[in-house]
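Task: fold both queries, return tokens.
Query 1:
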Amino acid sequence: MKQDLEALFLQLVQRRSVVSSAGEIEIIDFIEEYLRSWDYFLEHPGDLVRVPTENDP
């Protein structure tokens, strides 16, 4: 588990995720894809919702 968390951490910090940038969208896409690979969300895909916010790129 610790190695999995370390690997995830490294993947997250390698992405430039400045607010209102293409990187912000990239990190959101990465996190969504990561969560969708979990068994729970494979069984309940409707429980993971991406909510757009006003003035978001």
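Query 1 returned. Query 2:
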Amino acid sequence: MEATSTAADDWPSLLSATDPLHLLRTRLAFDVGFEELAFLHRTPEGWRRDDAGSRPIEEKDLPPAPAAQGFEAQERLGSTLRAAFRAGGHVWWWIVRRGDPFSDAESAAILGRLREWAPAMALRDLAQDLDAARGQLDLILRHSADAIILVDAGNRIRFFNGAATEIFGYAAEEVIGLHYDILLPPDARGKGEADRIRQAVEQSGTVNDLECLRWSKDGKPLALKVTGAAVRGPGGTLVSRFSFIRDLRPIKKLREELVRAQSLAMVGELAASVAHEIRNPLASMLAGLETLRSELHPSGASDEMFRKLLEQIRRLDDTVERLLVFAKPWEVSPRDYDLDAVIRGVAGMLGRESKSEIRLRGPAPCPVFGDPQLVEHVLVNLIRNAVEAGGAAEVEVSATEANVEIAVRDPGPGIAPEHQAKLFRPFFTTKANGTGLGLATCQKIVQAHKGSIRISSAPGRGTEATVRLPRAVR
């Protein structure tokens, strides 16, 4: 006996089968709707399931069968065949049928029924495969690391995945159905750029690695790389297009940081070399002038000239010292310390020095693991800058389990937008007597602590410098 199957690739064998019991099984499979059928038949060794390797069924488990001369003899004589109808591991009922072959009319009816069901079963299997493929594709599109946007022929957004939300700031439900122009810079909207993109994709089928500017929900420009692909319908007409988008900002930031690091390394080497060459002559000049002044005892204009010369030499010596400090590699020597105590010490010293108000806000104490001397150097620079810019300063500390943030604010005139991108460049300064090394040195120290520093400012609204440090540098 052959095993019953309803798989699509078994239909030819089913349709050509002549075994009456085989046809009986098939009919039952369709009429009853069970996916698994198991039958028993009589053999000289006893009742057995008709699939090879199954365990023998005990005679006591079955209803009595007529005395027989073996299964073949019973079938040949047309005696009764008893078969168990099993589904889900249980015997549901017994089938009793004469062993006579089906008549031609019965066989024709069964085969006709099978032919009716074959296309429906094939379509059902195909629909299941399509549903599975659709689910897999949807999963890939929604969880892709690249932003994926589907735009129809009318430039309306029809699909917007999670990565697109992260880049543009819009939730999918906010943009589905809207015109693609919403993602363009304001001055480019309504000027046909979406149509030009559609035409380019329609003509070539794809647009590869197009670098372009787009606009986020919060009004920020986005440097992106876009690859477009056409989706065509019957006749080759463009139905929609996919845009695969990659954010270039992290890549550009890494490139800028690499260039900056290389530049800083070169500047540091040059600064160290120049500083060493200048420092010794400066020391000799300073000592000589002080000796000459003490011996000559000048007065009036002569004494004023000596005083200014000494002041300028000391200023130059201070610049050389700053160059050496900037050029040296910063090595963190961490230990447990109280950040609040360091801040209070710096604020007290600079408050007395400048006779300015320095307000403190934040947790006290604030235990941190790091290099207190280097952090103190950063705080001196930032708080002194704030006092010099606004006549007063506010220092606020906020802490989480992992990080601590120090914000230094001043009520001064602020920093011009064109200067803000240059603040951490060596030798850039907006002060009349500045060296341009203070913030560059602060950044090196903070980075040595695996932290970050940023400055936000607007003309007429003051400046805020924020240092973020991990609470443990180990």
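Both queries returned. Flag for query 2: The longest helix spans residues 249-296.
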